[in-house]
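Cross-posted from the bioinformatics board.
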Amino acid sequence: MAAPPETMEKIMPKWMSWMKELQDNGYLKAGRPLERSGKLVTGKSRTVTDGPHVESKDLIGGFVIIEANDMNHAIEISHGCPALDNDGCVEIRPVMKLDM
Amino acid sequence: MTEFVLLFEGRVPPGSPQEMQKRTQKWIHWIQELSQKGLVAFPGCPLEGVMKRVTGSKREVTDVLFSELKDPVCGFIIILANDMEHAVEISRGCPGLDLEGTVEVRQVMTIH
Amino acid sequence: MMELSEHLFRHEHGRMIGVLTHLFGVHNLALAEDVVQDAFCRALEVWKFSGVPANPSAWLMATAKNRALDILRRERTARNYAPELGHLLQTEWTLSPTIDELFKSQTIADDQLRMMFTCCNPLLPESSQIALTLRVICGFSVEEAASAFLISQDAMEKRITRAKKVLAGSRTLFDLKDSDLCNRQSAVLRSLYLLFNEGYHATSSEIVVRKDICLEAMRLTSLLLHNPTTSTPATCALYALMHLLAARIPARMDEDGHIVVLKSQDRTQWSSELIAEGKRLLDLSAEGTELSEYHIEAAIAAVHADASSAAETDWEMIISLYDSLMALAPSPVIALNRAIAVAQLEGPLCGISAVEEIADRDRLLHYPFYHAAVGEMQLLAGNCAIAMHCFDEAQLYSRNASEKAFFKQRAEVCRIIEMEKSDRCIPACQRE
């Protein structure tokens, strides 16, 4: 999920209420907002660089793990994400099942 | 201790069964070691190579061709570290780096 | 659970390839290989976080099965799959039960054998059959297989690609009920024995990968013994032979990585467990009327195993076993081995005449151990100059650095003895 920083504070209540909604419906397994700056450790040489770039459009601002019936259900749930109202986006990835 | 998310990026290159087993074993040992040191805050999550993107107020849904992503995130884990430097130090042990992968280290925002 | 059993992936590779090739057809081997690779990738992604599941083999097989179902549902008509299953894969009604049936453990085991038989296609040269077995059944990478065979990766890649093309022509896996089973099984046994020998003649630098090959050849042979159709006395005898030879592996190389020949090996280093198991299998293989070359070769290996030194070996018995072997499957290499035994029993001159009597002796001219054997006999007979020449020839045809170094060292021994002889001559000449 990505959202422009300047509106972060304004939309905070929206986020809180969406999270509560996810929790009340029993969808929410975990979720974390992320600081915008980070480090990248790359390759055999373990090169450390600053990144990802804050100006990057695709910067991951945070994530939630939800339980949904299937991809369509997950898409439906994602529609409530406040980041979307600020031209942000949500990327949805299934978590691999740990047991067969 | 603060929470840090380690995003594991980069595809697994193909390898012989022997090679794949070696890689798997290395990962298992590394994660186990973190866990034994009490550094795992949330167990690791492997992600499927399938992605949908929902964009903007119109909720436009698009298929992302996973095979065309450059260094996709294949999984993540939340660890505990003293600070960013410590989290980077821990990340250096990641076996995926030996196959030219990347670990993106991001601090979890704490609500003040 | 944290530790994977050694070579688990390699062993599961062959099992998955067998059943998937049954399902997709031999002409879709590449697709089967993709599905297997996919299962390993998935295992890597999941097990890294979850640890090794309680039954990792079942986990991998279930993953391959799910992936296969996905593919069949998505591309039901896009490819021609196994011809004999064709219509069963066309509708959801029959697809699931067909696949459930295919992934039952007995079918999986049978399919792996059928794949082994498929790889030993008589249209392929033996070198390709064993390369294919190593690649397709044991899952060796081209690189691993090339280093095992001491050839370039390029050459191995070509050999495997060509072989796969030939294989694709057969579409279905070899049927164990086929009337040609007997012939095909002898080809399989020969391939497994060749594979074992590839590994057995390891040199120090690649000893690890090549010892793996011996173990793989033994494992595949044991698979044949687990199926009543393929568990023949010859298979059992081959398995016995492999045990008796493998018992010597610890003594075949000295600490510096040099070859130690049978007569100089420290026999206390031979594995007594492998010898005991080899003898038990040899007894077991005697049940029935079939007498194969593996029976006799195993019996010879057992005579060596029983002797505490080269001198105390029952050479008479060995010569008579070689006579039987010559009657059953004559070859110049066997005749050469017989001549070496004759030299041990009756002296080097008798050995040399036995060599001279070998039919098709010219076929041995590129075999380094032919020249080396004659060299040893000539050396014992006191003909150092001739012996030295023989070891020089052996060097010329040696197949790896370790062999070359060994022959060079033997030639050097000849040169020193020859020099000492002429040294002794000098005072005599001066007396003139």
